[in-house]
Amino acid sequence: MMPRHSYLQIIFLLLASQSTVDAFASPQAPFKPVFASSVQEKDQLTAESDVTTPERETIPLPPVIQGIADERKEYQMNVGKAMDVLRSDMRDILTEKPDFSIYDKNIEVIDPSGVRLNGLKQYKSAFAFFQTFIRFWFSEKSGLQFRMVYDFARCSIRISWNVVLVPKVPLGRPLHVDGISYYQLDRKSGKVVEHKIENLLINNSPVAPPYGLFSLVQQDMLRIRSPQGVPAGIGAASGGCFQ
């Protein structure tokens, strides 16, 4: 017959082994996908983003600073408009009326001959005369090429241009007119206040005072030369008609 304490040890061992089996046989917790939490977070963020947040109150600028900001905005808009208009007008400047809205009413135009035009009215008259002259003497085969650059430091627009004028006269030789137009902009309004023509060449011959753009084109067409080698003749009056 076994001792009493042996029975107790056997019963204890059986209970311990049974608890171990139950622990391994118990069902595991269901598998939870990794992305489940991220989807929930995404839904939460989406819900939060749908909530309308109150608009921040705009603090007005002091009158002086607001005035400077408005002037700068107007200047930038007018500079952009001036560049767009000049780029568009230069393509047909020989025959089509340009847009004069970018020019200041007191604009000053300076020709290599020294002729100065003051005011928008005289500037318009000069263009009308120039285009009438071109249409009368030269054919539609005439053309113009140009390159435009904006000078931020000097607040100016520079256009280098080359014009090829084909005469209507039979066997007439084409005229090549090169020059640079400087358009000075007002630092506040952005309007063009000065148009200056420099580095004028006709058939690679430099133009010097007292001859200007309009007179030289007409004189070279008639092949009349002065003793100094600069074209002269009835076209000299065309430069003075704008004074």
UniProtKB/TrEMBL annotation:
Highest taxon above the source species: Eukaryota
Keyword Signal assigned: yes
Coiled-coil regions, chain positions: none
Protein's UniProt keywords contain Signal: yes
UniProt xrefs under Pfam families: DUF2358
InterPro entries with a match to the protein in the record: DUF2358
Signal peptide coordinates: 1-23
Keywords attached to this entry: Signal
Organism ancestry: Eukaryota, Sar, Stramenopiles, Ochrophyta, Bacillariophyta
Name recorded for this polypeptide: SnoaL-like domain-containing protein
